[in-house]
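Q&A log
Question type: sequence-to-structure
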Amino acid sequence: MPACRLLSCLALALLSACTSVGPPVPSAAYAQAFERAAQQDSMRSECNWNVRYAPVAPKDASVAQLQAIATARLAALQLAPAWSLAMPGSEAYVFSDSEQDRAGLQLLLSIVLPAMKRYPAGVFARTGLRHVVLVKDLSVDGQRRLAMPAPEIDSVVYADNLLAALCPSGMELRVHHEYYHFIEYRLFNDFYYRDPAWLALNPPGTAYGQGGATAYGKGFQNLGHPQPGLVSLYAAYGPEEDKAEVFGWMMTPAYTVRLQQWTALDPALLAKRQRLMEVLGTLAGSY
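Response status: OK
Response body:
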């Protein structure tokens, strides 16, 4: 095989399939960063690489045209896009009209827009979500991120951060995961609320770690259903991550089938899934 390793080749092929655009001759630095991102993708081991997301525009669409499409589709959900981010501790960049940025934004929108459309009417309004921030190269306190909740500005933030190297459906899972953190903050005014009703659903002996941030930068792989009551390994890092992970697996079509299979034999995980379905139904005003 050429110098490009298997994961990088798969991801580059995926970018071509989804967007048909990309840097014609990637620099050595870009290729190295791409390879590193592919290897560090926490969803790599649980990825179904056959899942594809349709492009939202023709391959030659400009950034301005892509932004117009995002604006129209989010407006139909009573949301508005934002194209820059200014928050303490966070850094991100706006998309230029370079070929690489057009490809990155095309791929990001192909995942984020259908993900946001999966929610019942009324959920965004009831949680006070007003904006979807779409940027590139997001970092929080120096850590590279693909998404984060930002309830202080009524927003969730999603980023192209070498997204073409990563599992596409894993990115959708992150879309829902981070939105659930936003929901939790709006429900309890606390990202880290230790919900006694949720904790009571755990099997005896379940222990949580020191929070999701401690998983970053260690080559962490988010394996599915590592023990009864936990949908994923990342869920074990804290009750706030446990909730967001169940929600993310529940809302992402590429993962929800596995969640349903596990809950058929895991009553604790089934109870957690049902609890979050109740939360979503209540927010939609239909439960």
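Response note: The first helix runs from residue 6 to 19.
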